[in-house]
Amino acid sequence: MSKDKLFGLIDLDWRFEITKFKPIRALFKSRWFPLLLIIANLFIFVVILVAGLMGGYSAGNYNFGIMLVWILWWVMLMLVLVPVFSRFWCTMCPFPVFSDWFQRGKLFGVRLGKLEGLNLRWPKKFRNMWIMNIGFLVTTFFSGFFTVRPLATFILLGGIILLAFIIGLVFEKRNFCLYVCPVSGFQGLYSQFAASEIRRIDPEVCAKHPVKTCFTGNEDGYGCPWMLTPFNFEKNTYCGMCLECFKSCPHDNMAFNLRPPGVDLLIDTKKSPKGLDEAYKAFIMLGIAIMFYTAFQGPWGGFKDMVRATTAKGYFTYVAMHASFNLLILPGIFLFFSWLSKLFSKSQEVTLKRIFINFAYTLIPLGLGIWIGFSLGIIMPNGSYLLHIISDPFAWGWNIFGTANLPWTPVFTGLMGYLQGVTLIVFYLFSLNYGNRIAKQLFPDPDQARRAWMPILTFLTLITFIFLWLFLG
Amino acid sequence: MKKILALVLILLFFGISFSFAEDRTITVKAKKFSYTPNKIEVNKGDHVTIRLMSEDVTHGLFIDGYGLNTKAHPGSDGSISFVANKTGKYAFRCSVTCGEFHPYMVGNLIVGPNHRFYFFGLIILVICIGSAAIPLLKRKS
Known about the structure:
The complex is a heterodimer.
Chain A: E1 5-6, E2 10-11, E3 16-17, H1 22-29, H2 35-55, H3 64-85, H4 88-92, H5 97-104, H6 130-141, H7 143-146, H8 150-170, H9 175-179, H10 182-190, E4 196-200, H11 203-207, H12 213-216, E5 217-218, E6 221-222, H13 244-248, E7 254-258, H14 276-297, H15 301-307, H16 312-345, H17 352-360, H18 363-382, H19 385-391, H20 416-442, H21 446-472
Antiparallel strand pairs in A: 1-2, 3-7, 4-7, 5-6
Helix pairs in contact in A: 2-3, 2-8, 3-18, 3-19, 5-8, 6-10, 6-14, 14-16, 14-17, 14-18, 15-16, 16-17, 16-21, 17-20, 18-20, 18-21, 20-21
Chain B: H1 2-13, E1 23-31, E2 34-36, E3 39-43, E4 47-54, E5 59-63, E6 68-72, E7 78-83, E8 88-93, E9 106-112, H2 115-140
Parallel strand pairs in B: 1-4, 3-9
Antiparallel strand pairs in B: 1-2, 4-7, 5-6, 5-8, 8-9
């Protein structure tokens, strides 16, 4: 076992296997799971789409689609699902269900042999996060519509489902989820911090199993739809937790583990190298958090007018600001600090590009903490609208659960600043802890590592102070 | 001299200010989807009266942490009076659905001294300095 401990407390190699409990392993091996979850979710999404379509262009805080997607789903994703359960949303996501159904020709059982559709391979140059980076950023240009206009939410979700289906007709397996889905990218990025993982148990068992059914599939389960090699993959980023590897492994050698948060941030191997695409995802998520806070939780009315396109000039100015801030300014500032890092290190061996990319991963814990703080600012004041919309999802005057007439009630909003402050500090600590380790990975000489770390420490501290000021100042 | 300065800084940090409580009346104009002024700064102990005027549709003003609420229609103002006894930054937000950006219609009430901000800021600073200094100290020892 490793002696390396997170905060001197938890061994980084510590794992607790949840699937050692027989009922949980049986559940994971059942073909009903996660299918039933997906079907239940599909039903909810049908209601969301119908509510979105019928809600039209009106105020969204009393619309089922808006509230469920942008209040409940988004907040659950950032507060619980990603930090704790990695990409568990992908386990139950209904978006690719139609393309899966089409490719497999069946919803429940396993079809052996070639799948339906053109089954083309995804172009090699797009096997990264860049499409998701740009796609997600472009989606946020319209956040002033999606998050308040039911019809806009309908168009967005309907568009994603349609795109998932079309890509499933043309390309093999889950290429949509892997390389296109806008929700997938940030989940992949932040799932590296998650406190859980799916991994093989014993490498020897996999080594002695020549067929590798987790990759090729068998009568019990499909070969990894995410085109990973479950027998040796190293980090969460591209594992959609579809659980097919649990079903197809005849040796029950796959495990769902609890682990210390963030251990994937230290992975930098030939098989799973740190990449510029993921680094940029970290900048984009951080930049969007700043823009979103300013637009949606800040007091600046002029900026809100730009985001909601009161005038075309204002809107395009916002889009230009938003895009340039995320793609140029923020990475540019970080590049300057990376340059300082190289300068201070006095190292000739480590390139500026490698310093820039590897240290960008220190933004993952802090970025996630910032999104958690932002999400608290959504759910605590607005959560009570959920009670209204579950009773009257289509605004038809229903009162299914007797909660349709409950007044808007902010919950513990007086404590919000404390919660946001504590969250920031906890995730800042994680960023510093992993940043130190990344520095030591990059610069084997301890003195070089220490000197190189100082500018990045300064950058992380500045970002933390900016958000502390936004949340509490 | 240094001791006096340190004492003043400590007193300021812990919110013991030398200012006296004042009566503060602030008129806030509400218009889709912002308040003017969007930031109200008062001191702990001030008797604050916020007069809410609407310039278009019905708006509300709910203050986080204080749990106070008022409404204003065009031509009919609302009013809240309270003693600012909780320090920190609190959002005030529209409490009447007034249009599509209604959930985002917020302003800030800052009751000084802003303990929470200083407190968390100090922690971050200590962590930062500690993080930089500990490896150096370890190396020297």
